[in-house]
Amino acid sequence: MTEAVTALPAFPFRVRTPGEALDEYSKLRAEAAVTRVRLPGGHEGWLVLRHAEVRTVLTDLRFSKEAMTRPDAPRLIPVHRGSRSLVNLDPPDHTRLRKLASREFTQRRVETLRPRVEEITAGLVDSMLAAGTTADAVTALALPLPITVICELLGVEPAEQAQFRQWGDKVLTVGGPGADADAAREAAGALMGYLTGLIERKRARPGEDLLTRLLQAQEDGDSLDAEELRTLAMTILIAGYHTTVSAASHLLVHLLEDPARYQSLVDDPELIGTAVEEALRYSQVAGGFGSLRIALEDVELGGVTIRAGEPVIPLINSANRDESVFAEADEVRLDRTDNPHLAFGAGIHFCLGAALARLELRVLLETLVARRVPLALGTPVDELRWHLATAFPRPAELPIQW
Ligand code: HEM
């Protein structure tokens, strides 16, 4: 390795809290829109820090996700080689799969899930409140809510949900603390086997679930084959589970760290819609690791030339704090209406599950504030321990009290 390579800052940065990471991004963003870094494994690449340039990388097809699945490509999180997942495809394959999947995730379709999401959330909140006066909100709320919703979407039988969740947790802690690559591989294999069986069962006995509807989905005479459906189900689990856990945990941290902030929602639940968007903007939810792309040709961006073949990381969390786009970007403003945050990405890969994630986060807040319980953090925010070296940063635990 040359001296020039070792002199570059190493990304991901070594930080202990999301605030420290944001401070690093803020310093770099003040200097340049795009900066060069060294990635794990010695590759050099580009960090993109400002809103306009992050948006360009997310939307401009000269930056490819599919190229990231090549065996020698640099990566920040494991990518299943040869996987035909939506997240890792470029057009035209991406266009075809997305068209088949997207009608099940429209705002209208997702709203039909609201009564059941409300029921699941009420069950979790009421059991937590009934069990005492303190709880870990990660274990009691943030983890079980999204996985229960995903299990029901896919039609995983209640008796099989605990096992399904265990496999999901093993696959998704890769790169994080206590990660065990062998256990993750084994769990991914078990999940794929389980999904194959589940799809067969749905084919034989169609249900009321998303998997059945995707199995029946037709667009212009085209449909998903069993392998595509299995990969899509796996993608929904991977993209929809710990992202939402992370978002729900951050949402609660930022609302409860200031009791007046939480009280303002209890007093005026109309604020919940903008409060959820503000938490998505303000929090370090999607770490950006999963959004790495490879330039397919030389591209001028933010004053530098990105060469064909180079990795590019659009740092969504940095873009969401760009002072040139967001007034008082480092302040939480629950009533912020002009909020073009990029927490769900942009362009053709814009989060397929955004409407569902928003529904879950809104219902969680609606359910909590409706109980009118004076919730507060049980630990000062600067004493929280964080899982940061993962694609889905979140507090290890989130003690709350009432
Ligand atoms: C608050 C929670 C969530 C956040 C912050 C989030 C964030 C994102 C982001 C940033 C992307 C784009 C990645 C890129 O362009 O590189 C994405 C894509 C995606 N998300 Fe989400 N997501 C969340 C929840 C969900 C849920 C609940 C589901 C499904 C049930 C889901 C399914 C997907 C899928 C399938 C993609 C790939 C879309 C494509 O490539 O066309 N996500 N998400």
Automatic annotation (TrEMBL):
GO terms of molecular function: heme binding; iron ion binding; monooxygenase activity; oxidoreductase activity, acting on paired donors, with incorporation or reduction of molecular oxygen
Keywords, sorted A to Z: Heme, Iron, Metal-binding, Monooxygenase, Oxidoreductase
Official protein name in the record: Cytochrome P450
Source organism, top-level taxon: Bacteria
Protein's UniProt keywords contain DNA-binding: no
Pathway: Antibiotic biosynthesis; vancomycin biosynthesis
CDD domains: Cyp158A-like
The family this protein is said to belong to: Belongs to the cytochrome P450 family.
Keyword Magnesium: no
Family matches, as InterPro entries: Cyt_P450, Cyt_P450_B, Cyt_P450_CS, Cyt_P450_sf
Function: Involved in the coupling of aromatic side chains of the heptapeptide of vancomycin.
Pfam families: p450
